């Protein structure tokens, strides 16, 4: 897949861009000013829609700088190839003060990835057992 069809749904929409040509994600821009109260979750509008071919998904992901420098946390979102409507960015304000998102702010990134479609199969046992642990089992 070399091209991604993107529809701008309003004059406020900004075509997603990459900081560098080989970056994995396309930056997503807020299409309007929005205030997210402390402790609240909101959907930040982008006013864009995308058309993905069969076999691909899009992931709305946080931008690392936003996560480090602010109390705004973008929630990971999956966009299926059949969804052609407005893309919103779900964000939590984990801070104690309202957070102001301004029109044109780069808030999240859009990563396109191939998808496999396995069929779920129940088994009684796995072909091998793992004793590796999880959730931080390898230490700090």
Automatic annotation (TrEMBL):
Domain dUTPase-like per the UniProt entry, residue ranges: 12-139
Keywords from the named record: Hydrolase, Nucleotide metabolism
Record's catalysed reaction(s): dUTP + H2O = dUMP + diphosphate + H(+)
Segments forming a coiled coil: none
One annotated GO molecular function: magnesium ion binding
Protein family membership: Belongs to the dUTPase family.
InterPro entries listed in its UniProt record: dUTPase, dUTPase-like, dUTPase-like_sf, dUTPase_trimeric
Superkingdom as given in the UniProt entry: Bacteria
GO biological process terms held by the UniProt record: dUMP biosynthetic process; dUTP catabolic process
Enzyme Commission number(s) of this protein: 3.6.1.23
Species in which this protein is naturally found: Macrococcoides canis
Protein name: dUTP diphosphatase
Enzyme superclass (EC): hydrolase
């Amino acid at each position: 897949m070399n091209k991604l069809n993107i529809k701008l749904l309003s004059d406020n929409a900004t075509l997603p861009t990459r900081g560098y040509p080989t970056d994995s994600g396309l930056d997503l821009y807020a299409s309007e000013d929005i205030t997210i109260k402390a402790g609240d979750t909101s959907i930040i509008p982008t006013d864009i829609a995308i058309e993905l071919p069969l076999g691909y998904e899009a992931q709305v992901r946080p931008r690392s700088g936003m996560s480090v420098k602010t109390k705004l946390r973008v929630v990971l979102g999956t966009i299926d190839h059949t969804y052609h409507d407005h893309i919103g960015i779900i964000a939590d304000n984990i801070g104690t003060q309202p957070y102001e998102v301004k029109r044109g702010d780069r808030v999240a990134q859009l990563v396109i990835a191939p998808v496999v479609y396995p069929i779920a199969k129940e088994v009684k046992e796995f072909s091998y057992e793992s004793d590796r642990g999880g959730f931080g089992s390898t230490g700090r």
